[in-house]
Amino acid sequence: MWLPSYATPSERLMRTLVVALAVAVLLFLIAPLFIIVPLSFSKDPFFTLPVQEYSLRWYEDFFGNPRWMTAIANSAIAAVLTTILATTLGTLAALGISRADFPARRLVMALLISPMIVPIVIVAVGSYLFFGQFGLTNTRTGLVLAHTALATPFVVITVTATLSTYDTNLTRAALSLGASPSSTFFRVTLPNIMPGVVSGAIFAFATSFDEVVVALFMTAAEQRTLPVQMFSGIRDQINPTIMAAATLLLALSIMLFATLSLLTRRRVR
Amino acid sequence: MSAVDIDRINVFMAVRKAERPARRAAFSLALPLIAFLVVAFVAPILYLLVTAFGNPETREVLPRTLVALENWDGTSTPEEPVYAALAADLKIAKDNSTAALLGKRLNYEISGMRSRVLSAARMADKLETGPYKEKFIGLHQDWASPDVWSVIKRNGASFTPYYLLTALDLQQAPDGSLERTAGDQAIFLDVLGRTLFVAGLVTLFTLLLGYPVAYVLTIAPKAVAGIMMLMVLLPLWTSLLVRTTAWVVLLQSDGIINDLLMALHLTSEKIQLIFTRIGTVTAMTHIQLPFTILPIYSVMRSIPTTQLRAARSLGAGPSSAFWRVYAPQTLPGVVAGCLMTFILSLGYYITPALVGGPRDQMVSNFISVYINRDLNWGLAAGLGVVLLGVTLAIYLLFLRLVGADKIKLG
Amino acid sequence: MNFSQRVSVAADRPVDALVRFEDVKKSYDGINFVVKDLNLNVRRGEFLTMLGPSGSGKTTTLMMLGGFERPTLGHILLDGKPVERLPPEKRNIGFVFQNYALFPHMTVAENVAFPLRYRGITGVAAKDKVREALGRVSLEALGDRRPAQLSGGQQQRVALARALVFEPSLVLMDEPLGALDKQLRERMQIEIKQLQTSLGITMVYVTHDQSEALTMSDRIAVFHDGRIQQLADPETLYNEPSNRFVASFIGENNTLPCTLLGREGGMAVVRMGDGSKFKAAADISGTGGDMSVSVRPENIGLAGQDGRPDFNRFGGKVRDVFFLGDHMRLSVEAFGGEFVTARIPARRLRPFAPGDDVALECNVAECRLLEA
Q1: Residue C30 and residue C17: Cα distance in Å, rounded?
Q2: Nearest chain B CA: its distance from C163 CA (Å)
Q3: Strand locations in B75-211, DSSP E?
Q4: How far is C214 from chain B (nearest CA, A)?
Q5: CA-based Rg of chain C, rounded to a whole angstrom?
Q6: A226-257: pLDDT as tens digits
Q7: Are the beta carbons of C70 and A8 separated by less than 8 Å?
Q8: Rounded alpha-carbon distances, angstroms, from residue C282 to C276, C289, C308
Q9: Beta carbons within 10 angstroms of residue B97's beta carbon
Q10: C37-89: per-residue pLDDT in tens?
Q11: Do C68 and A5 touch (CB under 8 A)?
């Protein structure tokens, strides 16, 4: 299907050029990500290719350094808490907003999506100043609250998208068969929208785990997350241990992405 | 009103009443999230607005002075009672160590006021009795200046436009009129313009590079298109910090891009790429590309192939069919993708901070600097209001043209 | 020689052919052919329908004629000139697409004016032509609307106006009425046919709806498995199907296996499954072996006490009876295990119940011998 069979020669040439450009852009998209992988396995602390000699020293450095380990733990705890909160709140809201009789849907949807839109620095500074009033800056609670606000739009969007293909007659059928509203939800609705909920949860986890700016403002050394640790590292003096950290984050992203792809494929089937 | 009308109204009210429980049930499901966002998202932003306009220093430190100034004519040097009140206020300020706050606040508007307030406070602490007027004026000429007093009086108000005006390179003259901030103090419009310019440039590049990709995604055989889609979505999934890190490494003077350029003999000496505008725009374009591609692709995919065939059968050549029939139909996707990328580009912080030079710092970076280094929260908040205003204006445009429910992920 | 080939050779003098397909083959993968050895002449001014189930090659044939697919082998001649390599925009053929393919970002008038621009017609002349074309389909008043604001039937008319406005000598239609409801479809069939006759254009029409084909066409080409099974006018097609596929695809038909025994006064004599002898009209040659007899349900009636000379008579057991208003359908088991459907006017039918024995008959002229 690259070309319609009625294409004229000039059209063929044009097509070829467009395809070539698209391939170049796709390489531009993907190549920078994988540049960091070989560099993280280099023995030398230089950022040049080809790598002369491979070693695991930067990974040893990474896993041997309590700072990095604390940062990973902090990120993971914050991300898990954020995921639980955001998925619960977001799924409930999506269930409500998907009902035909939801009042002022456009307005509410605009509000629910806005954390994606508002510049992250504004959220960070606002949270820093506001949560500071209640002594929540430099606490994990404050960080999780702010991250949850940032993550909920993703859950709302994915679950709403799944619900748009959910047949409400399933709910009616369950109720007509004698199930209570709550057991209808847990035994009929939830299993059917599960792919959307899990996708939303994965997005929420990634949002929190990757987030830098809010974490930069809201954490002290004790709650410092992995991205913050990386950010300060790059700012001071970029070193190959950061490459190791970046490679591990990339691997995590690919894993989450693969999980999500499997989920969406199953949903299509 | 006829009986029929009344009937209709009754029916209407009955319908509304009957629907109310369902509406309430639907809304109550969304209520926890709405409440949460109000507390954890809207309230912090509102607090930022309050900080941008809040003006507590003068009111808290100089309450008596402000009362004494109520009868001041505003043009001459104030009378003794004002100075007596000032001495009393500053004495207390010295004890509570709040004089520095006031000094810092007044210093924003009249440079040098910080040290003047601090030395006046030290003097006031030692003074037992009046008359105070000559002693203050003796300490520094400025204490006799009606301009200084009008600034103090003006700042007796609970709210001030000062920070917002500063963020827009404007200032209030002592007589209250607006004027342009002079010379090297006027940097913020430049920063805002730079932010808009970089965001616009990034949007343009993502469109130029992304449009062909979206198009090829629709014409490629299914298996190939699947792999291509993966190449678009994977960067989207990768942490923004990882992508920025990659660019920091790539753009190094001893980095891979320079090696490549020299190997290809495109340049004979190393080019400065990191900490430049080119580097910033390149990295941001890379990060934003998927956001522009996806909405365009989803619109393109919905255009039936018969559209182009119909155009051809009616006599349009390949390029005419593309530009007159196909391209206009992709416009909704182009608008959605470009607005999204523009909005997101306005708020960039990490990438300019790590890849850009001093001249490439965006509004976000300045906000951060005023919070962390200068501790000028008011000005940070003022800049925040400007950034938020611009962003929300474009978000409203997005909501009108595209709609919040059209946002999809992947 | 096969029936369809005989007809096409006899009827298609090359002189009045607007379109000629010469040994056209089409394959997408080089292994399977969607169109196999197509030879077809479209006469100037005729309404020719390509009828067939999906995947039969009819749409591919239309697309090749429109210029959207290129024949793998063979030639397509338009007005005597080969056009295989001519891009669609240079063919000057009107094309009405399945879902109309109206341009959603243009008004109705802009849609109709679209082809005029490429033919150098602009300004007042274009406006007049657009008005005239919209008038032809009774849509003068809706020129400023967008396609999305029109009903399905109106969209269909706009597509028609757009394909006719530049006065092409040939108009192709790809299942243009498929998306409309039954009533509207029937009205549009008549309208399209009237437009075609009054404008004197040649029309090639693709459909899988046999009643549509029968209503509108001068000739019908029945496609199956990449080949034309029969090319004939509607009546011939209905009454004299040339093979089993055509017999079962057009209308309802009983096809009953039999063995050819010989010929007797222009009629074939065959032995049915239960050993009884039948006579049937036969256009095909052949001397023996497995064949089938086809007979339409409406041509089977209840047999009287005595056998009539020109009728085949047979008995069976009633399996099902359906009342359908003006007639009844009997499903009868006969010939040792075959099911025969008979359609009998309701008033003449005494009440039957499943299990009853029944005697049926059919005119020998309405029984046709076909190759199995």
Answers
A1: 30
A2: 7
A3: 170-172, 178-180
A4: 27
A5: 25
A6: 999 999 888 888 888 899 999 999 999 899 88
A7: no
A8: 18, 14, 20
A9: 9
A10: 999 999 999 999 999 999 899 999 999 999 888 899 999 999 989 998 888 99
A11: yes
Residues of C engaging B, defined by a Cβ cutoff of 8 Å = 66-68, 87-89, 91-95, 97-99, 101-105, 114-115, 117-119, 162-163, 166
Q: Packing angle between helix A66-97 and helix B3-37, nearest 10 degrees?
A: 170
Are the beta carbons of B310 and C94 separated by less than 8 Å?
A: no
Contact A230, A250 (CB under 8 A): no
CB C203, CB C217: distance < 8 Å: no
Sheet-wide strand order for C202-207: C93-96, C170-174, C202-207, C47-51, C219-224, C227-232
Asked if omega into A50 is within 30° of 0 (cis), the reply is yes
A140, A223 Cβ separation under 8 angstroms: yes
User: What is the pLDDT at residue C321?
Assistant: 87
Tokens in use for C344? Answer: 């009998």
Distance (Å) of CA B323 to CA B72, B207, B329, C101, C121 = 71, 16, 10, 16, 20
Q: Which residues of C touch A7 (CB under 8 A)?
A: 87
Q: Does B320 touch chain C (CB under 8 A)?
A: yes
Proportion of chain C above pLDDT 70, given as a percent: 93
d(CA C135, CA C111): 15
Q: Which of C114, C167, C171, C204 should one mutate to test binding to chain B, selecting the residue with the greatest count of B CBs within 10 A?
A: C114
Residues contacting A250, CB < 8 A, separation 6+: A33, A36, A37, B238, B239, B242
How confident is the model over B64-120, as pLDDT tens digits? 899 888 888 888 888 888 898 998 899 888 888 888 889 999 888 888 888 988 888
Q: What residues does each domain of chain B span?
A: 1-46, 57-158, 188-406
Q: Is B242 exposed, middle or buried (0-12, 13-18, 19+ CB in 10 A)?
A: buried
User: Which CATH architecture describes the domain B188-406?
Assistant: Orthogonal Bundle (1.10)
Q: What Rg value do the Cα atoms of chain B yield, rounded?
A: 30
User: What are chain A's domains?
Assistant: 70-268 (1.10.3720.10)
Give the pairing of strands C73-78 and C81-82: antiparallel
Distance CA A240, CA A48 (A): 11
CA C164 to chain centroid: 23
| Amino acid C372: pLDDT | 67
* Residue in B51, B209, B364 nearest the CB of A25: B209
| Spatial separation of the C-alpha atoms in residues C54 and C178, rounded to whole Å | 13
Q: Residue A240: helix, strand or coil by DSSP?
A: helix
pLDDT tens for each residue of A83-141? 999 999 999 999 999 887 888 888 899 899 999 999 999 999 999 999 999 989 888 99
Yes or no, beta carbons of B45 and A123 under 8 Å apart: yes
ipTM of the complex: 0.90
**What average pLDDT does this structure show over B244-254?**
89
- Three-state DSSP state, B35: helix
Residue B239 tokens, joined? 């942490």
A48–B254: do the CB atoms touch at under 8 Å?
A: yes
Distance CA B274, CA A50 (A): 21
Report the 10 Å Cβ neighbour count for C277.
Answer: 11
Q: B286: helix, coil or strand? A: helix
